Amino acid sequence: MAEAISTLPSPSPAPGSGRVTKTDETPRYNRAWIGRLFIYATLIAMAAAYLMPLWVMVTTSLKPLEEIYGGSFIGFPQNFTLDAWRVAWSQACIGTECTGLKPYFVNSLLIVIPAVVLSTGIGAINGYILTKWRFPGANLVFGLLLFGCFLPYQAILIPMARTLSLIGLAGSIPGLILVHVSYGICFTTLFFRNYFVTLPDDLTKAALVDGAGFFRIFWSIILPTSIPIIVVSCIWQFTQIWNDFLFGVSFTSGAHSPITVALNNIVNVTTGRKQYNIDMAAAMIAGIPTLLVYIVAGRYFVRGLTAGAVKG
Amino acid sequence: MSTLEIDRVRKSYGSLEVLKEVSISIDTGDFLVLLGPSGCGKSTLLNMIAGLETISGGEIRIAGRVVNDLSPKDRDIAMVFQSYALYPTMTVSQNIQFGMKIRGVPKAERAKAVQAAADMLQITHLLERKPSQLSGGQRQRVAMGRAIVRQPRLFLFDEPLSNLDAKLRVDMRTEIKRLHARLGTTIVYVTHDQIEAMTLATRVAVMKGGVVQQLDEPQTVYDRPANVYVARFVGSPSMNVIPGTLRVEGDKVMAVIEVQNRPPATISGIGLSRDAAARYAGRPVLVGIRPELFSVANGQPGTITVDIDVVEPTGPDTLAVFQLGGVEVTARLPPKQVEAGTATMLAVDTSKLVLFDPATENLIK
Amino acid sequence: MNASRQSSRLAAWLPRLVVAPSLLIVLVTVYLFIAWTGVISVTSSKFVPVYDFVGLEQFARLWATPRWHIAVENLFIFSTLFLAISIGLGLLMAILLDQHVRAEGFLRAVYLYPMALSFIVTGTAWKWVLNPGLGIQKVVNDLGWATFRFDWIADPQMAIYTVVIAGVWQSSGFAMAIFLAGLRGIDNSVIKAAQIEGASLPLIYRQIIIPMLRPAMLSVVVLLSYIAIKSFDLVLALTNGGPGAATELPSTFMFSATFRRNQMGVGAASAVMMLMTVAAIIVPYLYSELRERNNG
């Protein structure tokens, strides 16, 4: 039926219609061609606009300062140099410490890795329970967790700061890990729940009949099927936590800050002539880990993004 | 000896009662089919036998042992699911031996059991594949293999054929029947497909609204349905249930049915107990006539004349549709004997005709 | 038999036991902390929390603060433009990408990559791009258009629009991704049926396809609103709230009141205002999403 329709000549072929499988008839060919041209021109122009800031960042970071003040903004570096990167990495001053971004990059790693692993693990088991071991009130628990995804964090900054100092974790990396895990499990639970809902309940039932218990089913049956969503969850959490600024600037200070806070310091606190090449190199250093993840696993990144829009 | 006894079992979710005092008991080697439309409680009952749903009231006994509080693994059962429920990350072989692995069966023994089951189901060449690489029919076989290696006292099948296409469904039906004959195990099988019930079962329980309507051998369910609901649910095209009036003249019992634009038709020679005949004499009844009980009359007495409305040839037969007693009636006739828009004389085989009470819709015995 | 019964009872409680710590964490860090913030907002707390009760005094002070008025007004301008432009661009990109174009995957990746970056990185980059002396303005000037002015970032009247530009750059790809997913979910036969009736492609999009994207549109509006309300890092990195207070937003206001100006009570009051705004948008959305999903 559908086949028959698609092979019918369309009475009024739409210009530039990519959905029609049949090519338009000859007299209209020119119009269709113009339509395609318009589509590609628009798409390419927009792509250029989206890439421009990245291009400027990269080229600026590879230029010596004189060249920048000499008026080269968009052009290719004339005197290519990695000095700005070297300074940003190991010499730039953050506050009074002139250590470069290196220690803060390490801080971010020390925060991100445990926080990602913990929140993903907890989210996985929560999602498993909320779909395969539903209990009275499970929906309420899920609803409570879900709202946590959309919490404006300003609403908890003060109590969290008080609590962290109360339990002796103020300004420390473990404290920041705790914060990220607390709010991260809202997202990871959502990811895993929405994924496990699509696994047939018969799977759990079959395993029960086979004699497997709660943890056995999780380890042997459910977890091995969840590699894609584990990747989604890890990437999402990695990006969120790496890019976090609010928690970092609110709950840490000085040597324990994550890289975003250090970057903001470099950019905003410099006195004298602004060293844009170092700013851009620093921004690139802070952005490269998440950009790399995006390039390597973009598909999973998009799935994480759209998971919040359930009906998307 | 009865392998499975379901004794006044109830199930309710809050105030919603999905099973109302269901009692079924079957013997070793029986093939029980729970038949009914979706939402009739048949799958819930199966899950309760398996231990996947709690029992709100009553008792389920397997081989004489009350299993109400036993976990599924302790009930000596195996189950085949509608979606097959094969563990997607395990190979066929791992799928089949997962249960044994959990029970701590030694590796060599497991391998032997897998091999035996695979031979029986002809899936030996598939053992190292993943479920995603199998066709629907192959998945079905693997699911059965997983059940077979348990050597359970009771097999449970939850609509196992409903995800297969028509042709494969018939093949697998035969396969299941063969398996039952070969293993001789007791089976409880849930389906909404009355043909599966007729072909496979030794006992059929027709369910509706959480109540067993009839529990009998399939042929009995077909020939002597307990009520109008069962009569209509089993058989395709379904039984014609026609309003009429019972007339009794001495020993002769006959039904009088109104025919549009014609004098009323009389179907005589109905077999009915003297007692029932006396009770319903002169009163309205529902006359149940299977489509195949009609035949084209060759001038014999006791025929009815109808105006054929639509003719649907199916190949081996032709279905003729006409009005009788104010309802649409279907007759299954040999091909090319009637034409639409013509008047036709039909005879009715009254030996298998059944009567229902119009108020209770129960079979008049 | 008893052992088995006990083990099945344990089995019934095990899931609840395992999920309990997470629930406890969320109850404390989300709900208890919200309540705590609420309590602080009705006290006279300044540098540290003081638990006296001053009624709605802090809210009165908040609404009497000119800076807060600027922040609220800015949020209104910013979120309206940010949403409108992101949705427009996102929809345009999604529709064009859905025309079986070549290199679709590459283009999609280009539109979406800013979403992977920190707002701090985005802010830093755009601060440089928008630099009047050395950035875009200079490029255009050098090209020969000597009178071209693009110094919004230094202009208190215009600075908020630079936040919009950077925000759109970062987030419009997100709208594109959701719209594209929505377009891919539309049954092609609907479009074929409309074509057979003689409808032109723009008409089909206007009358049939875009209305069918309503669920995706709802998601985009809600999620972008949420991003807009919590925007904090972007402003801080791009303009640091300036020039003056020209780009102050409620999020930056809350932060500086609490941690820089020792007005914890006012900060808490502003946080409560933000929370109420988000809740007014998010709670009905979540409610409808959850209900629909249960039905489906």
TrEMBL record, chain A:
Residues spanning the membrane:
37-58, 109-129, 141-161, 173-196, 217-239, 278-302
Q: Which Gene Ontology biological process is one annotated for this entry?
A: transmembrane transport
Task: Report the superkingdom from the record.
Answer: Bacteria
Against InterPro entries, the record matches this protein to: MetI-like, MetI-like_sf
Q: What's this protein's family per the entry?
A: Belongs to the binding-protein-dependent transport system permease family.
What UniProt keywords apply to this chain's record, in alphabetical order?
Answer: Membrane, Transmembrane, Transmembrane helix, Transport
Q: Indicate yes or no for the key word Isomerase.
A: no
PANTHER family associated with the record = ABC TRANSPORTER PERMEASE PROTEIN, GLUCOSE IMPORT SYSTEM PERMEASE PROTEIN GLCU
Q: Which organism encodes this protein?
A: Azospirillum lipoferum
SUPFAM superfamilies for the chain? MetI-like
Tell me the ranges covered by the ABC transmembrane type-1 domain, including all copies.
Answer: 105-297
Subcellular localization, as worded in the UniProt entry: Cell membrane
Q: Which GO terms describe its cellular component?
A: plasma membrane
Entry protein name: Carbohydrate ABC transporter permease
Q: Which Pfam families match?
A: BPD_transp_1 (PF00528)
Automatic annotation (TrEMBL), chain B:
Coiled-coil annotation reads: none
- What would be one Pfam family of this protein? OB_MalK
Superkingdom of this protein's organism:
Bacteria
| GO-annotated biological processes | carbohydrate transport
| GO MF term (any one) | ATP hydrolysis activity
Keyword list, A-Z: ATP-binding, Nucleotide-binding, Transport
State the SMART domains in the record.
Answer: AAA
Stored InterPro entries = AAA+_ATPase, ABC_transporter-like_ATP-bd, ABC_transporter-like_CS, ABC_transpr_MalK-like, ABC_transpr_MalK/UgpC-like, Mo/tungstate-bd_C_term_dom, NA-bd_OB-fold, OB_MalK-like
| GO CC annotation, single | ATP-binding cassette (ABC) transporter complex, substrate-binding subunit-containing
Residue ranges of every copy of the ABC transporter domain listed in the record: 4-234
Which family is this sequence assigned to?
Belongs to the ABC transporter superfamily.
Q: What is this protein called?
A: sn-glycerol-3-phosphate ABC transporter ATP-binding protein UgpC
Per the UniProt entry, what species is this protein from, by scientific name? Azospirillum lipoferum
Automatic annotation (TrEMBL), chain C:
Which GO cellular component does the record give, naming just one?
plasma membrane
Q: Name where it's found.
A: Cell membrane
The transmembrane residues are 12-36, 75-97, 109-129, 158-183, 204-229, 264-287
The protein's matches in InterPro entries, at most eight in alphabetical order, are given as: ABC_transporter_permease, MetI-like, MetI-like_sf
Which parts of the sequence belong to the ABC transmembrane type-1 domain? 72-287
Q: Does the keyword Mitochondrion apply?
A: no
Annotated GO biological processes are: transmembrane transport
Name the source's superkingdom.
Answer: Bacteria
Q: Which PANTHER family match?
A: ABC TRANSPORTER PERMEASE PROTEIN
Family to which this protein belongs:
Belongs to the binding-protein-dependent transport system permease family.
Q: What is this protein called?
A: Sugar ABC transporter permease
User: Which organism is the protein's source?
Assistant: Azospirillum lipoferum
